Amino acid sequence: MQSMRRLKFFLPYCIITLGSAFPFGYHSGVINAPADLIKSFINTTLVARSVRCDGRCVDLIWSLCVTSFLLGGFFGGLIGGVLANKLGRKKSLFLLSIPTVIGSLLMMFSKMAQSFEMIIFGRFTIGIACGAHTVVGPMFLSEIAPVNFRGAAGTFNQFVLVFAILLSQVLGLPEVMGTTELWPYLLALCTVSSVIHILLLSICPESPTYLYIIKGDRRRSENALVYLRGQDCDVHAELELLKMETQQSSTHKSNFCDLLRIPYLRWGLIVALVLHIGQQFSGINGILYYFVSLFISNGLTKQVASYANLGTGFTILIGSLASIFIIDRKGRRPLLMFGISACLFSLLLFTLTLIIKRVTEINKLTILSIVLTYTFLFGFSVSLGKSVSKYFDFCIVFPCMVTVLLCILLLKKQLSNYCII
């Protein structure tokens, strides 16, 4: 009986992250390992079309395959908050799983159709869904989680994301699916998780916060809370908090100007922007998308670089696991200070190592640079994390109506991500 109660408690979190964090993480990492195979496919396709194209042209098309996901994420982030309030958190996740499946199928049939454009458009379509997921998913998690579990639930969201990155890296190995015949199926494998998510979403309750504050339905909100907390739990205290927030929302409708005008919202906005801009310019995206290419250019063989790439996923996974057990006990500030300090010193030493290697040609320094990269990734995973975990934290800081506005504002910085990559 106790195990069934625990399963019922954790199941909604698993369902939500399976359809939001998992595809985001998988498609962030899956494009790295089969890079040479996709470049070869692009070149073969151009030759078959009698198009003359040198290596730089192929690299440009390859870059479009990578960055189309980020560009789609920028546009998806802009509509995520609107969908969450218009359709609800649950229906939004259901709707967003459809373009994920469509984009995956486009990539799966790209080789058969001899069209690299299908990879670009497929990743763009998935990017739209994942960009919206970074708003809807963490918001949904924060609204169904008890107050004392919100930090761990948000870190669980990041854990699923980095697990998906690691899984994509393992499956991308030449011994698994990183082959000439199987790479299209590797890109499309996330279809399975999206279909399972669609099937299971029916047993997941809608957000009590959405039902009470947006829809004004106290009865359904109470039923959702009872389902989430258990029949023997008193949910009246949480309902009273929702009632107070509803009264505040009815007396003053939040807008973007409030983020600058109201002191506590303004300081929250400053914290949000500093963390997000720091996350974007930390260098994490360059490592995730170009780790293999980076270390091949620094002397590693393709096979060794592919296995070293697995270490990135394992390192972030370990950091995320550590965060789950620490964040609600020690708080976010100590984790941020420790992680950002680790990122700073590891990047400084990494840069110094590459400069010395270029001058002295000492090959063993490549190993040191990999270790420093792992150190950076561990520090990043326990502090800045991925964007989705940061949105989750701000769902705790800001009122419900302001959170949607803030998430839309912060997703606009995805454009800087696209420019960097």
Automatic annotation (TrEMBL):
Subcellular localization: Membrane
Statement: the UniProt record of this protein carries the keyword Acetylation: no
GO molecular function, one term: hexose transmembrane transporter activity
Transmembrane segments: 7-26, 60-84, 93-113, 119-141, 153-171, 183-204, 269-292, 304-327, 334-356, 362-384, 391-411
Membrane topology: Multi-pass membrane protein
UniProt entry keywords in alphabetical sequence: Membrane, Transmembrane, Transmembrane helix, Transport
Keyword Transmembrane helix attached: yes
Cellular component aspect of the GO annotation: membrane
Predominant place of localization: membrane
Domain Major facilitator superfamily (MFS) profile: 13-421
PANTHER family on file: FACILITATED GLUCOSE TRANSPORTER PROTEIN 1, SOLUTE CARRIER FAMILY 2
Entry protein name: Major facilitator superfamily (MFS) profile domain-containing protein
Natural source organism: Schistosoma margrebowiei
The organism's taxonomic lineage, starting at the top: Eukaryota, Metazoa, Spiralia, Lophotrochozoa, Platyhelminthes
